[in-house]
Amino acid sequence: MKIVTIIGARPQIIKAAALSRAIKTHYAAKLTEVIVHTGQHYDENMSQVFFDELGIPAPNYNLNVGSGTHGKQTATMIIGIEEILIKEKPNAIVLYGDTNSTLAGAIAASKIHVPVIHIEAGLRSHNKAMPEEVNRILCDHVSTFLFSPTKTGYRNLVKEGFNEKNDSPYSANNPKIYHSGDVMYDNSMFFSSIADAKTSILSNNHLKKGEFILATIHRNNNTDEQPRLNALFKSLNDISVAEKLDVVLPLHPRTAKLLETNLDKELLQQIKSNPQFKIIAPASFLEMIALEKNCKLVMTDSGGVQKEAFYFEKPCIILRPETEWVELVECGAAIVTDADEMRIKDAFKTLTSAILKFPKLYGDGKAAEFICNELLSL
Ligand code: UD1
Known about the structure:
This protein is of the alpha/beta class. The chain is built from 17 helices and 13 strands. It is 49% helix and 15% strand. Helix 1 (10-27) links the parallel strand 1 (2-7) and strand 2. The longest helix is centred in the first third of the chain and has 19 residues, at 70-88. It is globular, with a radius of gyration of 20 Å. Uridine-diphosphate-N-acetylglucosamine binds at residues 9-11, 40-43, 46, 67, 98-100, 131-132, 218, 252-254, 257.
């Protein structure tokens, strides 16, 4: 069986590592993977560093599309992916998550009848103002094999009309849905033990175990809307000052570019003069694990970081109006606050004073093997 895997944005490179590892270890004789990097993320610390650390084979193709408007970026990817699919003639295309690279792959493949395998299917924020929500809905509805990491995701697919009882032969008209567990959990478990030993991010930034907040902010509505960006940074700075806590913020290039223009001058000055507010370059995967394992609490608008906090049993404040990982909130380990100063500060108090539970919600660390087995058995 030959698959073409599309990656492009940072989290997809990480997710793809789990499947590539499973193929290399168990299925190399039966499954050939051709990797296509769209080039959506291109900075060294947004892309190459993950290939190096996670041991992913170098991409067979790089479309080098770079940044642009949604339309231009997605359209350029579709053209490149279509050409590769026609040349490579794979049995299926593998798509991860909900980025513009995912959508481009779904459109290119479905139009020329290459079956789509969507990993991370079924997740919904129920907010179509998010580009990611549009991308994931469109991708799911042209997919043939849909692997949902959570029970909620699986149930969302059923609610949207996917039939649980479809029989082989499967197609986009007769798709097969699964609850597979989460490939990101596979990775975090696999790399957890080496993260501390192989990184020095804690000592480099003078961070003490259990005594700092890890924050990430990159969603377009948080970075582009001035009141939201200001509320987020003010909350972080106020908590850091009031609690005498370090805040470490590995900064996405999107946010870095907008900080000087979109943050109030006075607030920016306060942050720059707070020695405990540590803005650093984007972290590698192992560095992020080391930060997640050793922090006191996570504040993030990222989907992946919310879950990684949970894997390492850390409370999480979700800086978005809603989350597609609803089970984190249902079990009390995370609180959705949006970009609301009062709600963020209240959530901090609640989460740091409660005894939290972290049940096993994301599988057994072998989601990638399950997916490969299913694909080969079909
Ligand atoms: C994309 C995904 C988002 C995911 C995120 C992970 C979409 C619609 N969004 O958002 O779901 O959570 O990746 O990081 O696909 N930039 C650089 N260097 C890079 C990459 C980006 O400087 O290597 C800057 C550029 O100014 C660019 C901006 O970041 O315009 C946004 O990048 P883009 O890939 O369009 O979306 P992300 O915000 O990264």
